[in-house]
From TrEMBL:
Belongs to the UPF0312 family. InterPro entries: Lipid/polyisoprenoid-bd_YceI (IPR007372), TTHA0802/YceI-like_sf (IPR036761). Gene3D superfamilies: Lipid/polyisoprenoid-binding, YceI-like. SUPFAM superfamilies: YceI-like. This is Polyisoprenoid-binding protein YceI. The lineage of its organism: Bacteria, Bacillati, Actinomycetota, Actinomycetes, Propionibacteriales. Residues 11-180 form the Lipid/polyisoprenoid-binding YceI-like domain.
Length: 183
């Protein structure tokens, strides 16, 4: 086991200026389209020596979805997808944290989009701990997981004339996390 990972202990807050919550899906079955959520917050209690005592809570502002296309972002905010007027946040609340290898962690929790809550397990790589130039103790994690958007009720699509659909069901979620230890 990584001594640095197992020795972590404390309460942390995600640093949104140095973290990303992104997604990737296929458009028209031929190209990947990337997007992100620009407004989110998260807290974590980390106990590397007793991972079962660790927990994470994440809240994402659905209206902050950003795919670099105003029309597409507007459609994603509509009732066809996130319905941000009725459901302003996406949430993840962990139920279990396990150390699975020297530098790997698995976080299982309940992920809520709109009014659908499903279990989700996300594998993460521990990317290190450091003290930044301002004296903040930071930890980093990188993770990704594939999900089927239909599992969360995101079923809108359009058939293509040549066959297939406009938006793939499979969505890759990607996370780059920098968190700061709280005093």
């Amino acid at each position: 086991m990584n001594n640095e990972l197992t020795s972590l202990k404390g309460d942390y807050t995600i640093d949104p200026a140095h973290s990303t919550l992104e997604f990737v899906t296929r458009h028209a079955m031929i190209t990947k389209v990337r997007g992100s959520f620009d407004e989110f917050s998260a807290t974590a209690h980390v106990d590397g020596s007793q991972p079962s005592a660790s927990h994470v809570e994440v809240e994402i502002q659905a209206a902050s979805v950003n795919t670099r296309s105003a029309d597409r972002d507007g459609h994603l905010k509509s009732p066809d997808f996130f319905d941000v007027e009725k459901f302003p946040t996406l949430k993840f609340v962990s139920r279990e944290v396990k150390i699975t290898g020297d530098d790997t962690v698995e976080i299982t929790g309940d992920f809520t989009i709109k009014d659908v809550t499903k279990p989700l397990t996300i594998p993460f790589e521990f990317t290190g701990a450091a003290t930044d130039p301002f004296g903040n103790q930071r930890i980093g994690f990188s993770g990704q997981v594939d999900v089927n958007r239909k599992d969360w009720g995101l079923t809108w699509n359009a058939a293509l004339e040549a066959g297939g659909v406009l938006v793939s069901d499979k969505v890759k979620l990607e996370f780059e996390i920098s968190a700061i230890k709280q005093a």
